[in-house]
Design goal:
Blueprint (H helix, E strand, L loop, with lengths): L4 H26 L2 E6 L2 E6 L2 H10 L4 E2 L2 H11 L8 H11 L5 H20 L9 E2 H18 L7 H20 L9 H26 L8 H7 L11 H14 L2 H16 L1 H15 L13 H13 L6 E5 L3 E3 L2 E3 L4 E4 L1 H4 L19 H4 L20 H16 L2 E5 L7 E3 L3 E3 L4 E6 L4
Parallel strand pairs: 2-8
Antiparallel strand pairs: 1-2, 3-5, 4-12, 5-8, 6-7, 9-12, 10-11
Bound molecules: protoporphyrin IX containing FE (HEM).
The site of protoporphyrin IX containing FE has 23 residues, from helix 10, helix 11 and helix 16.
Length: 443
Amino acid sequence: PGPLWPTAARNTIRFAHQALSFVQELRERYGDLVTLPTMLGPWTLVFHPDGVRHVVQENHKNYRKGGISNHVLRLTLGNGLLTNNGDSWLQQRRLIQPIFHRKQIAAFGQLMTESTLAWIEEGNLDTSQPLDLFQQMSGLTLSIVCKALFGADMVGYKKRVFVASSMINYLEAQAFYVPGLLSLPTPQRHRLYKARNTLYTVVDELIAERRKSAAQSENDLLTMLLQARDEETGLGMSDQQVRDEVLTLMVAGHETTANALCWTLMLLAQHPDIEARLREEYISVLSGRAPQMEDLPQLKLTRIVLEESMRLYPPAWAFARQAIDEDEIGGYRIAKGAYILMFPVATHRHPDFWEQPDVFDPERFSPERAAGRHRFAYFPFGGGPRVCIGNQFALTEAQLVLATILSRYQLRLLPGANIVPEPLITLRPRGGLLMTVHPYKEL
Ligand code: HEM
């Protein structure tokens, strides 16, 4: 309200409808830190890597998860790691961190490749008609994270979990466009709670079964969550906390990775020269067998292609914090309670840090060219103490899935296709990603 009202309304509408071009324009016109009046109050947009480092790392104690995005996510994820704050977050992070240790992730490598092979066997890469790769990749990454969470028990629950979790994704994406949609007792919120309750029922059953058979150690994340103990106090988590963490890992851990895979497939179809070099990598490193964890250090091109794809199309394109107390970022005063937004999607194309920022050039991530780059010029997984806990899981999964698929198939966009990124909670291809699938004649 007040004289800024028309500006605030205009900004809110532009952000809701054209966030990507709007954010880029703001950075170009106003610089590295911009205060934007919106109908939800003033927002501070931080574009410079120094500012990002200040918020997520150097002065992270002054910033908490808050605002509308956190509110919407909390409706389904409760007090899980992604939405939690303060001492409760720290305690949970300490309990869960060891479960996501690099060595632990290595144990999931086989599961990731096997799931991808089984998914191909089930006919998910139908070569007879165009497919929506966004749908397909979401199905694959959801089944991988669920198998990692629940082990073999997943089979009986698959359908229910898939239906409920796509409903949650759909409604949360809508809520992003229409603030308040899920805050009021709308039919949408009713449907969201119904889907969430389905997941609660499934996860509660699995927790109860695991608690009964606690003596048998299972090598899945759910068992590890139930067995996690604080080193000092020896205490573990309540069933409700485990449930929130399970839902968090399911939701945070699949659509992001599915998007990273989609953008990579699109970019490779647009750059057949790099696609051909990838295929050579698979022929020389794998010689026809399926990729394993141990192959990853040799699949160097796969790794940098993925990194470059997440530079241009970061699945977590924006994320937010709220200032607990007043502060200063790069000489600008930050008011107590200020809502801070950071945009990998904008900083990753900042011309002070990237040459020809819009060009797909995976070699940027070769060790020689990456040396000396600002740590926060590239932050697809965030940074500081709240850095993505699943980053190793995601990188391992994406590389193994890509190598399994691309050593066997070539994927092509439909003629004239123009794939437009849609910034919802994650950055996804608007209307899906239609592609055709062509098997290579010989492996
Ligand atoms: C946090 C990105 C995959 C679980 C985050 C954050 C980012 C991110 C940017 C930090 C958000 C913030 O600071 O506000 C991604 C991307 C992924 C991915 C781009 C895939 C390419 C995964 C996977 C899992 C996961 C596979 C789990 C299996 C989490 C959790 C948090 C988180 C639990 C919250 C951590 C905390 O606050 O302590 N992710 N993520 N993510 N991610 Fe991921």
